[in-house]
Each structure stands twice: as structure tokens, then as C-alpha cells.
Hints:
Elements: H1 2-26, E1 34-41, E2 51-59, E3 65-71, E4 75-86, E5 89-94, E6 99-101, E7 106-109, E8 114-121, E9 131-138, E10 143-149
The structure holds copper (II) ion (CU).
Copper (II) ion binds next to β8.
Keywords: Signal
Signal peptide: 1-24
Pfam families: PCuAC (PF04314)
Amino acid sequence: MKRLNSLACAFALACAALAPIAFAADHGGEQGPVGIADPWTRPTPPGTPMGVGYMEISNHTDEEIRLVGAETPKAGHVSIHETVMDGDIMRMQSVKGGLAIPAGETVKLEPMSYHLMLEQLKSPITEGEPVPVTLEFEGADSVDVELRVQSMDGSKQMDHSSMEH
Length: 165
Ligand SMILES: [Cu+2]
């Protein structure tokens, strides 16, 4: 009997050790560890080499993740940019090392802030033609999204192509 008891005990320990792993894999629920909300872009005039990408990225894990890259069949290259004020001059710069999204938090890619820069566009971005993008993360699996094409919003629009890189 003693032997059986210790065997049962060993099983219990093994289960206790496995339980947290199973829980961690489930974490984030059905949405997965990374949540993307409101992915959108703007139409581009013919000949414009660059487009933008905006969205909200939520990190449902317990560890920081990083958006380190993106790909789309629509563009030759995608960069992660940040718009900053340099005195009175607005300019864009690469986000070095990727865009960190702290555990449990949401980071917005939006006008005048972080954005995806779709470079070497192969054809203009037009309304009604969503742009598929694969987001690459460090600390999480890649995520496929579709950028909804949304017209410029009047007075606040910026001519991205004239901005200094
Ligand atoms: Cu940019």
C-alpha cells in the first residue's frame, strides 16, 4: 500500500507541474495571444511610392511582445515608423528594435504616431480593396490582418510622401 500511495503522489505532482503550462497555452482565450483591432490604411494617388498602415495591437500574454516586421504582397518593403516632432519639423523615423507592446497592454498605430510604412508600392491603394498584411512578432506568432481602405479625413490629412524620412 505504501508503494501505491507514493505512486499516486508522484502522479499528483506531475499533474500539478503540467497544469500551469496548459493554462499558459490557453491564455488569451479564443482570440489568441495577440489582438488586432481596427486595421486601416489610406488610398494613395497613382505614382505615390508609399502608403500607411494603422491599427491597435493588444498583447494578451504575460510577457512583452514586439512587432518586429510586416509583409504585404502590395509593397516591396514594410517598415515600422514613428512620427516625431523635431522642433517645428515633423519627421518619421524607424522604430529601432521593433515596437514593444507590454504585457496586457494595447499600443495604437495611428496618424501622428506609430505606423506601418508600406514602401515600394506595386500599385495604388484604392478604396474597396483591403490590403492583406502579415505582422511579425517577437514573442508571439505572426498574425494576418486586412487593412480597410479609408479615405482621407479632410483638414487633418497629411501628405505622407512630402515628409522627411
Ligand atoms: Cu512613415
